[in-house]
Amino acid sequence: MIPTAFPQHRATPLLDDPPLSTALKAQDPPGANPNIAGPSSATTTLSPAPPASGPTDQTAAGIAAPAAATAAGTVVIIYGQNQEHIVQLVAEVLGKPWTTEASLGMLARANDTAVVGILAHDLARSLQGCERSSLILVNTYCVENGSAPEDSLTESCDYEFLYLRGPFLRRDLSRFLSLIFGQTRPHDDLRTKTRTNFISTTFPDVHAALPNLDILSVGSDAVEIRVDLLVEPVPKGWTTPPVPSLKYVGQQLMLLRQHTELPIIFTVRCTRENGKFPMDDPALFYKYLRRAIQWGVEYVDVELWLPEEIRRQLFEKKGHSMILSAFHDFSGTWKWTSEEAQRIFTESAKYADIVKMIAMVHTIEENYELEYFRSTIKSRGAGPPLSAVNMGQMGQLSRALNTVFSPITHPLLPMIAAPGQLTAAEINEALHIMGQLPKRELYAIGSFRSTPHSMFMEKCLNELGLPHNFTSVDRGPKGSMESVLVQPHFGGAYLNPPVPTTTSFIPAASDAARAIGLVDTIAMTPGEATPGTSRFIGENAAWKGIRATLTREYVPSAYSSRAAIILASSQADASAAIFALRSLAVGTIYTVGFKASGPLAAGLEPFTSIQSVKRVEQPFVIVSALPPEKSLLVQPLLRHYGVNGRCSPPCTRGRVYLDLTSGLRKGDPLAVATRAGWTAYGVEDVSAWTTVETLRLLVGQNVPFDFVRMASGRPLF
Ligand SMILES: O=C1C[C@@](O)(C(=O)O)C[C@@H](O)[C@@H]1O
Q1: Which site among 198, 300, 355, 523 is 20 to 30 Å from 316 CA-CA?
Q2: Helix, strand or coil for residue 510?
Q3: InterPro entries of this UniProt entry (predicted)?
Q4: How many angstroms separate the CA atoms of 157 and 175, rounded?
Q5: What tens digit of pLDDT does each residue of 584-603 get?
Q6: Contact, 291 vs 154, CB < 8 A?
Q7: In 616-714, which ranges are continuous DSSP H helix?
Q8: Least confident of 79-83, 408-412, 532-536
């Protein structure tokens, strides 16, 4: 049983709000400038330069630069009868105004300032004589009654978003839009990891996977949906079709995507390569794989036997999806040392972001040959990374040695996807035995002793089959932390509360940690695995937790150039949030309760009087990092802007409230925010995302958000 883990948001009874003026007075920082920005400066403030460290850390985090514009073209949302709400929702998630048109001919030039909705029924007529290349057509379709869009409609569009109304809709939409517009690049993120795994799910129906999906995907960086293994239900007495229909596949994919934040790999495996898809019609493969790109799937598996023209076209049309070229040899006569192996790689690499080569073997030596082959590919330098493993019991060694997208299984799956597959824990155990993953002493330093959080960390280590020890130590008198860091097997730590970057025992700090001024994680520098001789780096995981929370239901560019307000009693409490907002290129950040100084201060304006509130445009985001006893003070602002705020840009309704306060608080700002129309998040979401990042920094493994959130003891939704 996983223990209850994180600080819980306590819903205390609503207290009366202090008036807005009292709230601001109470928070006036000493010496704050009373001449605060008027409306014009609020809207024309120069975009603050991103923090010096921004790009480096952002690249490492797989974060595409926040685009001010969504895409080079007008985003046209095609919607069904009585489904106009989806146009508004898309606009909200993109942070743009919207309109509906009866004809696209009216849109003279590419214009990315607004989202345009058009009824599906009007599309074909309206496209005639229209400059198609300046439009990005996204078909939206509600699958509520089990129906599916017309093929011809889907094919005339660039992308398609299938949806069900419900609690996941907005999140799923944000993920879809972020991917198709290149605003999140999960592949860039994964490329920086030393090892990556994906779980091959083998369910005939994704519904069966949902109850265990969180636990199934611990240790995975992506989830594979084996489309060829899906079995479409048919009425009694009917025969099951040889392949699941696109309609069924679309619904299954939508369901899976709604239940995991991990990137999805869309695989249609043919009969010759251990799959179920017949090979007599390559065009059918094209149809399914092309559709996966239109659906915004992160990775599309394209088999090498498919005609070159099909592979080329898919690669050319991949948008921001990544192509995984796949080759399997079941003959039992495969030779990694052959020229054929080199040729297969070269051919695969022509149209691939990752090349996957897999062969059935019968001797242990064939694993050594594979390792030699891997080294020859590495020595070629340029080209896509190689993911290569052997199948069969004799090939298991190669599954531990492969570092790029190792296919893994889990005991809760109905069957293994290929002979010899291992679990994430088995791979880690094997690596440990082979001396590739030495045991490390990890620490939680601060006020953690016997807290649920460190118990949860230990649980994760067990689940992942990692050999490390995890110890909680209270931060004691001066010098006590240094003594931990010099332990011979010290292998990393997380620190709560964080410590200033300037603290003497903190080793080198990452760019982000330096800009924020705080270190919350001490991790081994990438590529090092041996405790005792390793070098360490001070990191800040909190800002990534904040950013991940902020972008769950809005794409990064929704924040671009828009006003934000941060309330805190000190800059230290606000700095990770400032950094996260800067990484999203927000406009002016108004501060309440503290005055910023140093590198983070550029573009911040203290917000001090009631007049200032009246003159400032509607902020898109409010973050409160107030201590619990002052948490009440944010409520008047939430109410004021929730009801009275002037919108910018006009007609966009979205706004985000993030509450970073933990502990017994006064009032219930989250409830106030929700009632006033804000998309509200509490500290539990940020803590869960931060834990995901911390584990990744400390042990290089992915523990999905939903698993962490589930373990925090509160139902997810
Ligand atoms: O390509 C692969 C690898 C695999 O065949 C394996 O050997 O683990 C399993 C498949 O599901 C996946 O698509």
Answers
A1: 198
A2: coil
A3: Aldolase_TIM (IPR013785), DHquinase_I (IPR001381), MurA_subfamily (IPR050068)
A4: 19
A5: 999 999 999 998 888 899 88
A6: yes
A7: 635-643, 669-675, 683-699, 705-711
A8: 532-536
What's 517's domain CATH number? 3.40.50.10860
Q: Residue type for 417, please?
A: A
Asked whether residue 526 falls in the same domain as residue 558, the answer is no
**Residue at token pair 């240790």:** 219
660: amino acid identity, one letter? L
Rounded CA-CA distance 244/227 in Å is 8
- Specify the 3-state DSSP secondary structure of 463: helix
| CATH number of the domain encompassing residue 394 | 3.20.20.70
Distance between CA 688 and CA 456 in Å, rounded? 11
Residue 33, pLDDT above cutoff 70: no
Closest-CA residue to 510 (of 659, 261, 687, 693): 693
Token pair for 339: 């020229």
Q: Please state the length of the chain.
A: 717
Closest CA to 616 of 640, 639, 633, 599: 640
Element (H, E) at 100: strand 98-101
Helix (H, G, I), strand (E, B) or coil at 85: helix
Are 115 and 232 within one domain?
no
Taking CA atoms only, the protein residue closest to ligand 1 atom 1 is: 326
Angle between helices 308-316 and 282-294 (to 10 degrees): 10
Instruction: Give the domain extent around 95.
Output: 74-180
Q: Say if CB 575 and CB 518 are below 8 A apart.
A: yes
Amino acid at 222: A
Which of 223, 269, 325, 398 to probe ligand 1 with, by most ligand atoms within 8 A of CB? 269
Q: Which residue ranges have their beta carbon within 6 Å of ligand 1?
A: 200, 224, 226, 267, 269, 301, 326, 356, 358, 389, 391, 407, 417-418, 421
Please identify, among 130, 150, 180, the residue that sits at the C-terminal boundary of a domain.
180
Whether the Cβ atoms of residue 63 and residue 547 lie closer than 8 Å to each other:
yes
Rounded mean pLDDT of 178-194?
93
Label residues 434-463 b or e (16+ Cβ within 10 Å = b): eeebbebbbbbbbebeebbbbbbbbbbbeb
